[in-house]
């Protein structure tokens, strides 16, 4: 146990201990509600009321606007703990706090718009997300041009299209939409507010992460005034954009949390489960101990790399652009380890792990979603290979 009253070595100070304590309290509440929302595929509105009341929604908002200005490391701590209670809620709110942190780092929004957004988050519990995925393009990380179209009209733009994987859609009062700009090769970004022309179509019915509210959002001639255009026709991508990729560590943090919860459940089960064929709980069996050890290898390795990478991102400000392969590797290591951990936990518990009366089968389904969140495994491995080849070439040319 460290001097902050925790056995977790990644809690390094009083502020981090407080962030973790709040996330633990929220996660415990959410764990009780998770089975119902998973079964129904319903959105956990009450969870987001609790997140709002606790101040969690302002975790990454700048202090100057009333937020907590959390670092990437602190965000990872909070998200991992929250996901131990409910993966769906953690992943959903992760897009909000990640988006707020990205905007804080990049300064991409016009200052008055960003200030207004931050104050809305703090005062009203507004949540934010960027809707970029579409049926034809899939993940925006693959580079497809949006089929959603922005058409120039008097005083602004008219947006028409369909966005998929629109996490948090049941409670989004405002959100960013990417759209191809008519008569241009450029892709714009627009601040859209719920209202006339905006419809949520409840399409989200998935194997895992069933309570994230990631429905389709349909836009029909939605008007966006010029003052709320984030990236317009005059936008030119800077030669050296401000690195923001570190915010995506909220994704592996979530899956690490799910895996940690599965690990705890399996160990607790093994400590107490004693079939009548045995005189001791199954935790005493060599085979079960080996399975627990395999979980620990994955857990300790993945958590160490995740927190090391988050810490480097925060500290190595001038080196952030070159950390992109490490960020991708953190996601790759953690999500694949999380899948193995939950699988091993189910093997320890045995046939009972398939029961919907226990949380493991939900964790098993939820954790697999990590394989389909960005960055994808193939892109991570390609980036690592390209870097290694380039480094070898550079050394050979010396």
UniProtKB/TrEMBL annotation:
Acyl-CoA oxidase/dehydrogenase middle domain residues: 132-222
Domain annotation Acyl-CoA dehydrogenase/oxidase N-terminal: ranges: 28-100
Cofactor(s) it depends on: FAD
Keyword Transmembrane part of the UniProt annotation: no
Pfam families: Acyl-CoA_dh_1, Acyl-CoA_dh_M, Acyl-CoA_dh_N
Gene Ontology molecular function, alphabetical: acyl-CoA dehydrogenase activity; flavin adenine dinucleotide binding
InterPro entries: Acyl-CoA_Oxase/DH_mid-dom, Acyl-CoA_Oxase/DH_mid-dom_sf, AcylCo_DH-like_C, AcylCo_DH/oxidase_C, AcylCoA_DH/ox_N, AcylCoA_DH/ox_N_sf, AcylCoA_DH/oxidase_NM_dom_sf
Ranges for region Disordered: 133-152
Domain Acyl-CoA dehydrogenase/oxidase C-terminal: 253-369
UniProt keyword annotations, A-Z: FAD, Flavoprotein, Oxidoreductase
Domain of life: Bacteria
Membership in a protein family: Belongs to the acyl-CoA dehydrogenase family.
PANTHER family named in the record: ACYL-COA DEHYDROGENASE, ACYL-COA DEHYDROGENASE YDBM-RELATED
Entry protein name: Acyl-CoA dehydrogenase
Organism (species): Paenibacillus glucanolyticus
């Amino acid at each position: 146990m460290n001097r902050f009253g925790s056995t977790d070595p990644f809690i390094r100070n009083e502020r981090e201990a407080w962030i973790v304590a709040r996330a633990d309290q929220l996660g415990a509440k959410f764990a009780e509600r998770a089975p119902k929302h998973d079964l129904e595929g319903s959105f956990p509105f009450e969870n987001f009321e609790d997140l709002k009341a606790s101040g969690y929604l302002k975790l990454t908002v700048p202090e100057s606007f009333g937020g907590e200005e959390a670092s990437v490391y602190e965000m990872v701590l909070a998200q991992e703990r929250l996901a131990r209670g409910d993966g769906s809620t953690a992943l959903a709110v992760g897009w909000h706090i990640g988006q707020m942190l990205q905007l804080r780092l990049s300064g991409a929004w016009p200052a008055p718009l960003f200030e207004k957004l931050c104050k809305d988050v703090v005062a009203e519990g507004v949540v934010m997300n960027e809707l970029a995925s579409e049926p034809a393009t899939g993940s925006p990380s693959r580079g497809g041009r949006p089929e959603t179209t922005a058409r120039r009209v008097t005083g602004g733009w008219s947006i028409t299209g369909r966005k998929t994987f629109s996490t948090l859609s049941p409670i989004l009062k405002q959100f960013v939409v990417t759209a191809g700009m008519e008569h241009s090769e450029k892709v714009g970004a627009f601040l859209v507010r719920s209202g006339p022309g905006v419809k949520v179509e409840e399409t989200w019915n998935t194997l895992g992460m069933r309570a994230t509210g990631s429905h389709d959002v349909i836009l029909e001639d939605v008007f966006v005034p010029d003052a709320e255009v984030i990236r317009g026709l005059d936008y030119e991508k800077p030669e050296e954009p401000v690195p923001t990729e570190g915010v995506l560590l909220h994704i592996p943090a979530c899956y690490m949390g799910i895996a940690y919860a599965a690990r705890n459940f399996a160990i607790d089960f093994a400590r107490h489960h004693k079939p009548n064929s045995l005189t001791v709980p199954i935790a005493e069996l060599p085979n079960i101990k080996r399975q627990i050890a395999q979980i620990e290898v994955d857990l300790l390795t993945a958590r160490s790399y995740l927190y090391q990478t988050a810490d480097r991102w925060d500290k190595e400000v001038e080196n952030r652009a070159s950390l992109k392969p490490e960020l991708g590797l953190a996601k790759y290591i953690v999500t694949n380890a999380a899948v193995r951990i939950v699988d091993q936990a189910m093997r320890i518990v045995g046939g009972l792990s398939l029961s919907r009366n226990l949380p493991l089968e939900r964790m098993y389904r939820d954790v697999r979603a990590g394989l389909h969140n960005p960055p994808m495994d193939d892109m991570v491995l390609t980036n690592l290979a390209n870097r290694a080849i380039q480094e070898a070439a550079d050394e050979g040319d010396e």
